[in-house]
Amino acid sequence: MKLQEFLKKKMTSYAKHIKEKRLASGARILVAPFSSHRHVSLAGSILGGTLFAGSGELAKVHAAMLLEGTIKRHKKELQIALDAIGASLLFSAGSDRLYFSGHVRITHLEEFLTLIAEALSEPAFPARELKILKSRERAALALEAQDTHVQAEINLTKLLFKRGHPNFTEETAASLQNLEKLDVKTLRALHEKILDGSSLILSASGDIVPMRLFSLTEKVFRKLSTQDLSLPHFTKATPGFARRVAMPIKEKASIDYELGIATGIGNKHPDYAPLLLGIQIFGVPGFSGRLMSTVREVEGLTYAAYSYLSGFRHTTDGYIRIWSSFAPGLFSKGRTAILREIQKIAREGVTAEEVRRHRERFEASFRVRLSSSGAFARAAHDCIADNKPLSYLDTFPERILTLSAPEVNRALRKYLIPSKLSESAAGSVT
């Protein structure tokens, strides 16, 4: 079958099913009708997150406190109101946006949207609930300090990025210091700083008529204050010299090991798609990647070895990340095996057969990921949040299906530079 015939047969347009309206405030509302037994999934956000807070910990606590009570309802009343309509609602912080997501029966959509708008526009930040949340968060950070996987990842981002970059992660000790300093006044100041109804993106998918959602959102969110908010400036990273860091954590049965290199490109760069496929071929989770088929299956040195592209956005340069975990007695051999496979794929490249198999794997996985209303709502939201047209949901997997081995190998040689890879290990290391 010719490639174009294959594309025509395999691909279904997602973008054409999504309707969009821009409200008078500038907010963007998206609706994708989706058969879901009279259920609606929502994914939304406003500008916010770590870049505006200056601390990942502050951004995280701020997001969590939005469900701890509003000016009109204390925490228990807010939870009862959500439970009464069978809705779920979660707020979370990203690098540059404050996210919310949830689902509700279509008959209670207006009440649900009203509660979301209330949490955004009238948070109370009660001191009593903040005290309790801070206590829980101290316990979570104590566990994080002993998590070898998290510590290896944090230290890798510190090797690759400068403070202020979206992919820089503050160390656990700094998170604890920031947690102790924050108070109600700090939270209120941050909320006032970021609340901007013009930056609102709301995406819904389920059994809903688009015009109904457009009408409801115009009514419910019209009171959200607006301001001229823009992303803080940061400097892109570039591949530097290789650096290493090892964090000893006592009484651990394993060592988490990560390697990485900054790429200096975002996810709209022409090299992103071939690099993504190349890194998938190298270490996709599962047993079809090279790392798992050699370092685990043949040599038996680890339980898992994966590679990823991480931290890529339209305006944010990402990095290549390779992770594995080893018993202390196998760490030296495991590290040597990982480095050997990196050097091999960078030198020899991938085969046409590997590209063919992994193109189809990516396309199939992409379609499966969009097979629920929640995932569809999130995907549409993320396109707009990342300054991409909705057609990206169709054109990107189509682009993957057209990739050739020479394209993938050029990207791997350009960005996966063994001599410039930084390394981070945490656990029973010396």
From TrEMBL:
It comes from the Bacteria. Transmembrane segments: none annotated. GO terms for molecular function: metal ion binding. It holds the Pfam family Peptidase_M16_C. Signal peptide: none annotated. Belongs to the peptidase M16 family. PANTHER family: METALLOPROTEASE, MITOCHONDRIAL-PROCESSING PEPTIDASE SUBUNIT ALPHA. This is Peptidase M16 C-terminal domain-containing protein. It comes from Candidatus Kaiserbacteria bacterium RIFCSPLOWO2_01_FULL_51_21.
